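Sat 14:20. Reprocessing the chain from the morning session after the first attempt stalled halfway. Input below, unchanged.
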Amino acid sequence: MSGGDAKKLVRSPSGLRMVPEHRSARSPFGLDEPPWVPDKECPRCMQCDTKFDFITRKHHCRRCGKCFCDKCCSKKVPLPRMCFVDPVRQCAECALVSQKETEFYDKQLKVLMNGATFFVTLGTSDKSELMVCRLSNNQRYLVLDGDSHYEIEIIQISTVQILTEGFTPGGGNTRAIGMILQYKVPGSEEVTQMRFTASEDFSCNKKLSASWLAAMHKVSKAAKTYRRW
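Finished this time. Tokens:
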């Protein structure tokens, strides 16, 4: 894997951040801090239009950088996409977005980093290999370990299709049993396909595999929203 996982603590006007020492190790889901709207350009709250004075102070949202009064920018919410150590002040609109993303970081990404076991088939091969699949700690790679070893850069993944069973025309419960993943080989336009199938040999693995696949599906949709894949 390119780059290490070493991090450093940095201070900005917005707060303390724990960021990778090397930009090449940055998470593909990360965001840069926005520039703050200069104080001289915001005589009034950019939400409620209240005029700032000695009593009504101005505050900058750490996510969008816009200027607000305390009433419109009072919430302190975790902002993992910018690597803030503590919850930071955000406007109401940004706070809602950040709250949804915190669940994404606390649940989906952690499930993927914990890993799960699948039979993996490469391309059109009729042979599969039992492999442990997980997201790297810096969230940049999908790592597959078995007799073989693969590292797929997240930004090279183009398609994630979850395979399910149990669907009926009238509706009903379905269960994720596998995934078809397509990605580009770095340095070329060649597209490679991998098929992941949950192992039926270990009953304890079924639930873990289904949770991992569900997390992968949500991460793939989130990544498109973040415009990183």
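The two ends are 18 Å apart (CA to CA).
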